[in-house]
Specification:
Elements lengths: L2 E4 L4 H10 L3 E5 L18 E4 L6 H8 L5 E4 L6 H10 L4 E4 L5 H17 L4 E8 L9 H12 L5 E4 L12 E8 L5 E8 L4 E8 L3 H14 L5 E3 L1 H9 L1
Helix pairs in contact: 1-6, 4-5
Length: 242
């Protein structure tokens, strides 16, 4: 399997290059020694690994336009335009998209869904996420994904991003999301399920980014040669459990 790293000079891009070694045959980034976007993607690339920013996706779109290579993306902070790009790309290639490439976070989401089936309506959910000082987007894509799971399973759908001042009583439909930034934290997520007279806390801590790099490379192996479409951690984990 031959790989390309898009966003090769970022934290995750550099780590992916280290972990994948000689499998990486192309690297694209605005920063040297990354290749500029006006150089076409080599024909032999099987999978493009993207850990960039939404603002770089127009360049990624140009790069993919001349290739049928599969795509693994862990970029977060996407808006409507980026979601439309994902849908477009998935019509002609396999696209694996996940806000978090760790198995532990996948399991955390499943535990939340299971808890929501029993607790939604009687318990409130507050999400606290903590990341390194240089993280650009907030809240994290993982926190938003977890809030979406809670909503899909019957929990509140009104997101409240932090609180200050006279915020008033908590609405029954709120899901509070709070972002902490500092140091070199790879990624911590805590789910506080708060009921009357009791509370339940579920949490996940990533001790390093190699967890995410390993997950991205597993995703690349999984979608290499797959039919066009969008694939997620659900697909990857179910296959590995068979």
């Amino acid at each position: 399997m031959k790989l390309c790293v898009f966003g090769s000079e970022g934290r995750m891009g550099r780590l992916l290059r280290e972990e994948a070694g000689d499998s990486v045959i192309a690297c694209y980034d605005m920063l040297p020694p990354g290749t500029r976007i006006d150089v076409p993607l080599p024909e032999e690339v099987d999978v493009v690994l993207d850990f960039s920013l939404p603002s770089a996706w127009k360049d990624l779109d140009s790069l993919l336009s001349t290739s049928g290579a599969a795509l693994v993306t862990g970029t977060t902070g996407m808006g409507t335009e980026e979601m439309e790009m994902l849908a477009k790309w998935s019509k002609v290639r396999a696209v694996f998209a996940s806000s978090n490439m760790s198995v532990g976070i996948y399991v955390l989401g499943k535990l939340l869904a299971y808890a929501a089936e029993m607790l939604a309506g009687d318990f409130d959910l507050e999400i606290v996420e903590c990341h390194h000082a240089e993280k650009v987007d907030s809240p994290s894509g993982t926190a938003l994904t977890l809030a979406g799971i809670w909503e899909e399973c019957g929990g509140g759908g009104q997101k409240m991003f932090g609180r200050s001042g006279a915020a008033g009583p908590r609405s029954p439909g709120e899901t509070g999301i709070h972002s902490l930034r500092g140091g070199d934290v790879a990624g911590d997520h805590q789910l506080h399920l708060l009921g009357k007279g009791e509370r339940l806390t579920l949490s996940h801590s990533a001790t390093g980014r190699r967890t995410f790099a390993a997950g991205a490379l597993k995703a690349a192996e999984y979608i290499n040669g797959k039919s066009p479409g969008i694939y997620t951690m659900d697909d990857l984990i179910r296959k590995s459990r068979k």
